[in-house]
Amino acid sequence: MVKRIGFGDAPCPVARALDVIGDGWSLLIVRDAFDGVRRFSEFQASLGIAKGILASRLRDLTRNAILETAPASDGSAYREYVLTQKGRSLFLVVVALRQWGEDHLYRSGEARSSLVDVETNEPVPRLDLRTHAGLSLAPEMTRVKKVEETR
Length: 151
Fold this sequence. Notes:
This protein has helices spanning about 15-20, 25-35, 40-45, 50-65, 85-90, 90-105, 145-150; strands at about 65-70, 80-85. By secondary structure, it is mainly α. It has one domain: Arc Repressor Mutant, subunit A.
């Protein structure tokens, strides 16, 4: 088996983020947590994931402070997984992936879930990155300032 390379010390924020949440199962667990899934059995039922893999991903997400455990909301002896503030800040990432998937992975008219505003029941607006001047920001309008440049 090939050993996974860690990016926890990488100078690139994208690499470090992927080190924590880059696994597909981890992002789907976070997605489900945004949808209100809180218990191990609920995650397993929603995802169809093996118990061992789910336990491992939940442990990693908890260790990285994306999720935390809390007493069950129904007062039972169970523990529930809830998003931390750090985990909740992944909302834009999940929405961006959702919108990219909507744009590129569905045929015209194909049924899919949609993200709606709970007050209006209207679709959530498209994410749009903007410059300080308010212009829509395209990739060619940016560059990565490498660590070497900041020293």
